């Protein structure tokens, strides 16, 4: 989240007619797509707009169609950021979510980096790495792809190059094991 430009094009929430379904998993409402019999799984972590965002669910369905079991948990517990709510601008929304585990880590990029510190995760993909620091990257133990935004003041190209150098120096962060 580099600034207001990140919130300029929020998703339109509408009823999803996706291939997946909602169920409670680990105490959280979750969008589930794909076969439970799959030997491959993907955990998708939403941004501030939450697990109901149609594009996120469409992505989950596409990944599931490729043979994966996909889980999109509602880490925001039914309270995503709503740009139209003038009484809860983004700074207020973030402050109110200080007790949410995802928000305590910053937001979804931090969650991805934290998960990438465990060997039971085979690979990670990090989009828009705002709030991620070089210290966060030092603990990564699995292959990770970091896709930065072109104009992100919080994770500029210079920082992304430092991430890359740090990861390239770690032999355990090689090719994903699939």
TrEMBL record:
Chain positions covered by the region annotation Disordered: 1-21
A Pfam family recorded for this sequence: DLH
Molecular-function GO terms, alphabetical: hydrolase activity
Domain (Dienelactone hydrolase): residue spans on this chain: 36-80
Record-linked SUPFAM superfamilies: alpha/beta-Hydrolases
InterPro entries for the chain: AB_hydrolase_fold, Dienelactn_hydro
Protein name: Dienelactone hydrolase domain-containing protein
Organism: Escallonia herrerae
